Amino acid sequence: MKQSLSLIEQINEFVKQENFQLPVFNDIAMRILKMARHEDFDIREMSQLIYQDQVLVAEVLKAANSPFFGGLAVISTVRDAIIRLGARQVSELVLIASERIQYCAKDKKLNNLLKKLWKHSVACAIGSQWLARRLSYHEKDNEAFIGGLLHDIGKLFLLRVIDTMQQSKEVEFNISYELSYELISSFHAEQGYKLLAQWNLPEVYCEIARDHESVEFDQENIPLLLVRLTNQACAKLGLGMHQDPSIVLISTPEAAALRAKEVVLAELEVMLEDTMQLAS
Prior knowledge:
The protein is an all-alpha fold. The protein has 15 helices and no strands.
């Protein structure tokens, strides 16, 4: 690979030559997600789908029995978990569980970054959905959840490519931990937009990936506003790859556009800290 190329050009050339791709969403997870949107779903059919993947079974039962969701009786079957949590909550937990496996790398430092990114993505997904419901945007809560989970997928993609290039015997590619962080911070939004567009996902998710940190953004795009505000709350709390305790949520343009009150934002911070147990 030509050393005269910039780092991002080297990465793009490697992706093109090696046809590097992230796996599209788990088929079982997507089927359950679609099923949960209908009130007349078949609980037996949903349970059988989940039982096809023991990782998903373990995650659903773990969540159903966690203090986060409450409940005195121990849940031992997927069916009972669906009854306790509800179909939509289970479908979202399944999507989270199916995505977790992608957030790993052979390089120890990159793997550490990916673990932080995973916790951030989960917190942002759950937080954005919570905020949508708390602010009475119930019709947008599913978009907020998925948008929050996917907003930083460009970082996942770039870190996985960097890890693959460093392990490859076909190319010479050495990059410091600090430069990796700088690279993904600068280019992840563009890469995330391209990736989701290639997957033919709805434009709302592509726009969230592209604009979640942009200076200029659509202040009437409710899912984008919810993810942007939750993303900043995560950064304030250190739920991610960096921490900025100086952030004042009530002073953000997102809070103004959503008409979010200070008490709601304080509740959001408390709720986000509680989500850590789901991402651990």
